[in-house]
Amino acid sequence: xxxxxxLNDRLSVPVVAAPMFILSHxxxxxxQCKAGVVGSFPAxxxxxAEQLDEWLAEISEELxxxxxxxxxxxxxxxxxxxxxxxxxxxxxxxxxxxxxxxVPVVITSLGAVEEVxxxxxxxxxxxxxxxxxxxxxxxxxxxxxxxxIAVAAGAGGHAGTLSPFALIQELRQxxxxxxxxxxxxxxxxxxxxxxxxxxDLAYIGSPxxxxxEARATDGYKEAIVEGxxxxxxxxxxxxxxxxxxxxxxIVNAGLDxxxxxxxxxxxxxxxxxxxxxxxxxxxxxxxGQGIGAIDHVFKTQELVDKLVAEYAAARxxxxx
Length: 320
Known about the structure:
Strands 1-9-8-6-5-4-3-2 form an 8-stranded parallel β-sheet. Helix 7 (188-197) packs across helix 11. The chain is α/β, with parallel strands linked by helices. It is built from 11 helices and 11 strands.
């Protein structure tokens, strides 16, 4: 499948960096885009809300200037994640700012709304919608999303339970548009594996936590470096939506990872952990199962260079 024009020939490796609550901010996004992968952040990370206008202006102007000064480099566009759920009382205002700044890519989560897609399309932007199963994918495309992000088992933060093989196969039976795969992708070989399965791009989050530019504490970054797949706990307690979190952060919050209660989904909370005294993302650290491949804290450019080299080596092994 050919990539949308907005992404065509602008990536050093077929990767979109996932938006991460609290952690993704302009320094990380700019480093990702300058390295040739799509950088992204949740609109809700800009607090107070007025800060979003400043962030969008800063990122847009800096990338335009950098691309002009470096015509031989692949400079990727950036993306903003919008939570399309009734609990997000900022959606209308944040969406208006995305339109104002003509954000190239918008990633929508937890709701597919036709009016949101139309607003992004009004200036030529594209919408990628994240899903965890086929039914939501069909609804998203029906309502005007341009592409899908298949969030499979093992992905960091809010994630599904389906095998990436099962999910991609079902989607490709009827959808031939842009398709991204998320779930434990932490090296260049896994990026190529995602493409071999039928995805166009890999969607990577956890490795970027252990970068110098990420807005994570040193303890969080070290936990990513030291962690393995067995250190990830899947629970809905902290936000009302099932997600994957580092066991060590749950223990540090005084909770037993093996005996976590279910949350009340009607009290969904994406920023403050309303279902638990421990705050999601701040106290309870999101992470995917692929962290065993992460062995130290990188600069973002170094991490992307590593992905590029591993991706090329994997292609060479398969004589592609």
